[in-house]
Design a protein that fits this description.
Shape: flat
Number of helices: 15
Largest sheet: 5 strands, parallel
Strand order of the largest sheet: 2-1-3-4-5
Radius of gyration: 29 Å
Number of strands: 15
Strand content: 15-25%
Order of helices and strands: EHEHEHEHEHEHEHEHEHEHHEHHEEHEHE
Length: 413
C-alpha cells in the first residue's frame, strides 16, 4: 500500500490529509516534529512526505535539509503551507521538493496532487518489471549504471560490452541504453538495426558528445531520448522513468484496443487479425490449423430470468474456463454477444475436437454463485483446408448450428 508521512502541527490539516488518504486507499502516518518524523522513516517504508513549514520544534526547511542528508533523500517531499511568496516558493524548490501547495487550495487540489504521486509510484513499480539492456564498452560506466539501478531496486538489467554482442543476442528488451561511441561500431548503427527488426522499445542514447547535430540525427534514426555524459544519477533515473511511463501507457492503450472489456479476451477485430496471421503461417509451414466456434446455450433465457448482470458473470466465467483449458499460444476471442472464436495453431481436427470436448465438459461443471443457473455450450470444430477465411468461418458456424439443432451441449465436427 502507498504510504504517506504527514508532518504537521495543525489538527485541522491533520484530519484533512488523513481523510484524503483514507478515501484514496493510502496508508497515513503522522508526526509533529523532526525527531518523530525521522523515527517514522526508520520504522516503515514511506513513499511520500507531506510537510508544513512550521513544526513543533523546528521548521519544514530543517526537515527537508535533514532528509536530503539521509538514506531517505529519494523520497519525494511536498510542502503544504500558508506562506505563498514567490521567494519562499523558489527557496523550497531549490531544496529539492517536488511540489508546493498553498493551504488556501481546496481539498480537490490536494487530493489530485497526492493521487498524481501515487500514479507515479505505480509506474515505477511497473518499470521494475521491464527488461532493460545497457550497451556500453566502458567498464566504469557499466558499473555506475549497475549501482544506480541496484539502489533504485531495479534488477532486471543485462549488460553488453559491444554492439555486436547485443545484436547477436536476439533477446528483446523494453528499454535500451546505448553508448554512442562503442569500440566495434557507432551506437546509431545499433539503434537502426533494432528499429529494422521492428523493435518498439524505448531506446535512450548516452554519450559525452553533446553537439546538436549529433543529437538530432540520433533522435531522427529512432532514439527516444539522448542523455549526455557525465550524468546526474537522479536525472538519469528520472529520464528513464519518463520514457518508461510513456512506453507503459502506450502498451496499455494498445492492449485496450484489442481487448473485449467484459471478458478480457481478444475482441472480434483482433481475433480475426490473428486468424489471418495463423492462416499465413499454416500456408508457409504446412502445419494444420483448426478453429472452434462456441456459443452459450439458452443465454437469452439466462438474461431474462436472472438479469443482464448475471449474464455478464456467466460470460466472464465461461471465458476464464475456455482460457484455462487451452494452451498459452491458442487464441481465444469474443466473437460477438455470447459467441467465442478459438484459433488452434498446429492442431489437427482430432486434437481440436478433444480440446473442444474438454471445454464443453469444464463449462458444464462450472459452479456459479446463483445455484439455479446452469450453463452449457455448443461447439462447432473444423480444420482449415486451404480455402478462403470466410469459408472456414462459415463451416465452423454451420457445425455450431448443427450442434444446436442436435440437442445443444455438444460438439460437432
Amino acid at each position: 500500500m502507498y504510504s504517506i508521512l504527514h508532518v504537521e502541527t495543525s489538527n485541522f490539516y491533520r484530519t484533512l490529509i488523513e481523510k484524503i488518504c483514507s478515501d484514496i486507499g493510502a496508508e497515513y502516518s503522522f508526526a509533529k516534529n523532526l525527531d518523530d518524523s525521522l523515527n517514522v522513516l526508520k520504522s516503515r517504508k514511506i513513499d511520500l512526505i507531506i510537510t508544513a513549514i512550521e513544526l513543533e520544534d523546528s521548521t519544514g526547511e530543517d526537515l527537508i535539509l535533514k532528509i536530503n542528508d539521509s538514506p531517505y533523500k529519494n523520497i519525494p517531499v511536498v510542502v503544504i503551507t500558508g506562506t505563498d511568496s514567490d521567494e519562499y516558493r523558489t527557496r523550497m524548490f531549490s531544496l529539492g521538493i517536488v511540489d508546493y501547495i498553498s493551504k488556501k487550495s481546496g481539498n480537490d487540489e490536494i487530493r489530485s496532487a497526492i493521487l498524481a504521486y501515487m500514479r507515479e509510484d505505480n509506474v515505477f513499480q511497473k518499470m521494475a518489471e521491464l527488461k532493460i539492456a545497457v550497451c556500453d564498452d566502458s567498464k566504469m560506466d557499466r558499473y555506475i549504471m549497475e549501482r544506480i539501478f541496484t539502489m533504485a531496486g531495479i534488477s532486471n538489467v543485462e549488460y553488453y560490452e559491444s554492439g555486436d554482442e547485443l545484436l547477436a543476442s536476439d533477446k528483446e528488451y523494453d528499454i535500451y541504453l546505448i553508448d554512442m561511441v562503442l569500440k566495434d561500431m557507432i551506437g546509431n548503427y545499433v539503434i537502426m538495426k533494432l528499429r529494422e527488426k521492428g523493435s518498439e522499445a524505448v531506446i535512450i542514447a548516452i554519450s559525452g558528445v553533446a553537439h546538436y547535430k549529433t543529437i538530432s540525427n540520433t533522435l531522427n534514426i529512432g532514439a527516444n531520448d539522448y542523455i549526455a555524459k557525465p550524468f546526474n544519477n537522479e536525472l538519469l533515473l528520472s529520464r528513464i522513468k519518463t520514457n518508461a511511463k510513456n512506453y507503459i501507457l502506450l502498451n496499455e492503450v494498445k492492449q485496450l484496443a484489442i481487448t473485449d472489456v467484459l471478458t478480457s479476451l481478444y475482441n472480434r477485430r483482433h481475433t480475426m487479425e490473428r486468424l489471418e496471421d495463423e492462416i499465413e503461417k499454416s500456408k508457409r509451414y504446412e502445419n494444420p490449423l483448426s478453429v472452434m466456434m462456441i456459443d452459450v446455450d439458452h443465454f437469452k433465457r439466462i438474461n431474462d430470468e436472472f438479469g443482464h448482470l448475471s449474464g455478464d458473470v456467466v460470460l466472464k466465467k465461461i471465458a476464464e474456463s475456455i482460457t484455462k483449458t487451452l494452451r498459452d499460444f491458442d487464441i481465444v476471442g469474443r466473437f460477438g454477444g455470447e459467441e467465442f472464436l478459438v484459433v488452434l495453431p498446429n492442431t489437427s481436427i482430432d486434437d481440436a475436437f478433444s480440446a473442444a470436448e474438454r471445454i464443453r465438459k469444464n463449462v458444464e461443471s462450472l459452479k456459479l454463485s446463483k445455484k439455479d443457473i446452469t450453463v452449457s455450450v455448443s461447439i462447432g470444430v473444423c480444420q482449415w483446408s486451404g480455402d478462403e477465411l470466410k469459408n472456414l468461418l462459415s463451416e465452423a458456424d454451420r457445425l455450431l448450428y448443427s450442434a444446436k439443432t442436435n440437442g445443444r451441449n455438444r460438439t460437432e465436427r
